Amino acid sequence: MLDESKIQAAVRLFLEGIGEDAQREGLRETPERVARMCRELFAGMGQSAEPHLRKTFSTENSGLVVEKNIRFYSLCEHHLMPFWGHAHIAYLPDGKVAGLSKLARTVEVYARRPQIQENLCWQIMNAMMETLRPRGVMVVIEAEHMCMSMRGIKKDSSKTITTALGGCFEDDYALQSMALKSLLTE
Ligand code: ZN
What we know:
By secondary structure, the protein is α+β, with helices and mostly antiparallel strands. It has two domains: 4-41, no CATH class; 51-184, GTP Cyclohydrolase I, domain 2 (2-Layer Sandwich). Helix content is 42%, strand content 26%. It has a five-stranded mixed sheet with strand order 5-2-3-6-7, sandwiched between helices. A hairpin with a 5-residue loop joins strand 2 and strand 3. 28% of the residues are buried. Bound molecules: zinc ion. Zinc ion (ZN) binds at residues 76, 78-79, 81, 145, 147.
């Protein structure tokens, strides 16, 4: 459960820690603002994508379904700095498909929490495998990490790409490369 008073106290202490005057005009209300913002940034905590992925439609079509360029923003759990980019999802239905907006909602549930890109990718794939139960899922995420661009090796605009494979995608290389082609071309 998110505790706004703890976040406020922590932000005040943090500002003092970096040598700031937490009482000066521009910073006076920062702890409250950050605490309020956290409600949105961490809205996925304690949530599951199950309710979204339960809304399905039946289909005879067993062909590849691809949802590309799902924009997301998340926070890296190692530095609490933003990472953001696009998630791409491909799956082979087994009698039912999910509402297209529900795939974006699934991404939001797992992005809005302290996260690492590798786990974000896996959690989306796993939620789809467990609830939607398709024949297979492939999730690809392309993201830029502020903790790479702004600090450390300062590799501006370098992209991190992760993939997660479930079901029939796991050992079918032809299927993987076919899906990758439609996921990664503009
Ligand atoms: Zn980081």
